[in-house]
């Protein structure tokens, strides 16, 4: 009986820790500085409830780190590593937040990288599911605003402007 109780307490503590890590990662990612991205990349990923969400942030952070290095080879390595982690996260479980991250990276990636295969799919998923996602409306608005800021295609901005939550 005591073992069961301790086991559930331990699971509860792991869940709280994972939620704190996710909150930390969200905050660091949106600071959008080289140091904040490095803070995310230095995390040790462990399996748990928030693993795929944090993996998506690690992937997006890797891709964004490409803008902070000067060597073209390093830029490509960071970007490709990030792209792979983002795609892995979304192949495991698709959420509004992970879709937002991949969409954000695709909209901001240089066109010569040809990382645009999922824009329509991701935007459709985002539009369809954002209203019912349990994220706070303030964060939903921040996501939409960030997507608009990174987008140069007027047809996509029109769709982003029509998102209601």
Write up this protein:
This protein is mainly α. It has one domain (2-161). It has 8 helices and no strands. It has helices at residues 2-31, 34-41, 51-65, 72-92, 96-108, 119-129, 137-149, 154-161. Helix 2 (34-41) packs across helix 3 (51-65).
Entry keywords:
mainly alpha; 165 residues
The biggest beta sheet reads: none
Terminal-residue CA separation: 45 Å
Q: How much helicity do the residues have? A: over 70%
Strand content: under 5%
Tell me the structural class. Answer: mainly alpha
Q: Which residue ranges are poorly predicted, with pLDDT under 50 across at least 5 consecutive positions?
A: 3-19
Overall pLDDT level: 88
Principal-axes shape call = globular
Helical segment tally?
8
Number of beta-strand segments: 0
* Element string (H = helix, E = strand): HHHHHHHH
Using only CA atoms, what is the Rg? Answer: 17 Å
Counting structural domains, the number is 1
Protein name: DUF4142 domain-containing protein
Signal peptide: 1-18
Organism: Namhaeicola litoreus
Keywords: Signal
Helix/strand layout:
Elements: H1 2-31, H2 34-41, H3 51-65, H4 72-92, H5 96-108, H6 119-129, H7 137-149, H8 154-161
Protein name: DUF4142 domain-containing protein
Signal peptide: 1-18
Organism: Namhaeicola litoreus
